[in-house]
Design goal:
The protein has about 400 residues and is of the alpha+beta class. It folds into 2 domains: about 240 residues, 2-Layer Sandwich (BirA Bifunctional Protein, domain 2); about 80 residues, Rossmann fold (3-Layer(aba) Sandwich). Helix content is about 40%, strand content about 25%. The protein has an 8-stranded mixed β-sheet. Strands 13-12-14-15-16 form a 5-stranded mixed β-sheet, sandwiched between helices. It is elongated and about 90 Å long. The structure holds adenosine-5'-triphosphate (ATP) and magnesium ion (MG). The site of adenosine-5'-triphosphate has 19 residues, from strand 6, strand 10, strand 11 and helix 12. Adenosine-5'-triphosphate (ATP) binds next to strand 6, strand 10, strand 11 and helix 12.
Amino acid sequence: MAKIINVIKGTKDILPQDIEQWHRLEEKALEVFSKYGYKEIRTPIFEATELFARGVGDTTDIVNKEMYTFEKSERSLTLRPENTAGVVRSYIENGMSRLSAPVKLWYKGPMFRYERPQAGRQRQFHQVGVEMFGIKQPTADAEVILLAVNYLKSLGLNDLEVEINSLGCPKCREEYKRKIKEVLKPEFENLCEDCQNRYEKNPLRLLDCKVESCKAIFEKPEIQKVIQSDFICEECAAHYKELKSYLDKLEVPYVENKLLVRGLDYYNRTVFEIKSNNLGSQNAVCGGGRYDSLVRNLGGEDTPAVGWAMGMERLNSLLPEIEPKKLKAYIVSNYPTEAFSLAEEIRSFGFDVEFDLANKKFTKQLEKASKVAEYAVILGEDEIKNNEVSVKNLATSNQVTIKRNELKSHLL
Ligand code: ATP
Ligand code: MG
């Protein structure tokens, strides 16, 4: 026998027995996002590498370590590690700034990051996300957070915690960065290698470090004092306060977390995450924030924007398992020609139905029917002769013989 070829590490098949859960995530996304005026956008899975280098930021782990990059005809291309950069590229390229604001877009699909595979972390995974362009007011921040919470609720997920923070604007953040660097300077040698590398380029990212020894350092009182200080300027503070007042009014519970800085470079002001206590260490289902400078950085006009992305594998692992859906009917018959046309007739009623293409023994077919369907529709010699069918309700074992033209209403 030929050698078996296996799926690549960090990637997974989504098998038929799991697909209904995926459909539910996708259908609810369409349903809930539509209510808020979002339209779906589908952008390519690969883009110019430069889009992510500039869009996601070249001080991030995603760009530095995690991208699947390849060359084709002397162009450097990359499998998208996230979809905000792609959506922004499309927004600019297709002149969407000419549309009346806000422009509200949503997407779903696979993303690719070369990370260490573990529970809740894959190399090909899926995200569903939203982006809103053109509104600088915190009403937009509030609406996207509300949308995330309501999408999760529509899936039956209530037991989740929203964390928020404000990163301020590039202006007020400079001073904060300087203070963080200053207070961490005596600890530099004790920081992990990643943190030492980030220290100069992206000091805020240090606060996001998951290494225990670094976390312990950040707990020190003199460092906490800086972390917990209110560094944001008056305008940023007003924006943040207004956002919180909307969330309060909307009864969206949240906690403030000053350590929440997010992994991507493009955020300013509002950042947020939604976490579950039922996910183990990879506990974030949703991450997002405001990114007012990204459209300009990618060559567009100055356009405020805010959005989020959710990991669909993590969402799935929180959802209760769905019972596999049964066929409406299974035809039990040893007359394939008749069974074919009866099946087509039942399909034309809008029901799903199958019959035994292998034409096995009657009892075997009945056994199969009771496993896969709600009704067995029996078509034997007598039924064919009298233009009838026998219909067995497989839950109750009730069986009746009816005229063919009564079948539709009977199944309904
Ligand atoms: P994490 O802290 O878990 O690495 P992140 O900050 O890198 O998340 P984002 O880039 O904001 O995540 O992506 C949003 C969501 O996508 C995450 O909250 C998570 O649910 C999911 N996600 C991110 N990376 C992966 C991955 N490698 N495998 C599965 N899901 C992922
Ligand atoms: Mg990550």
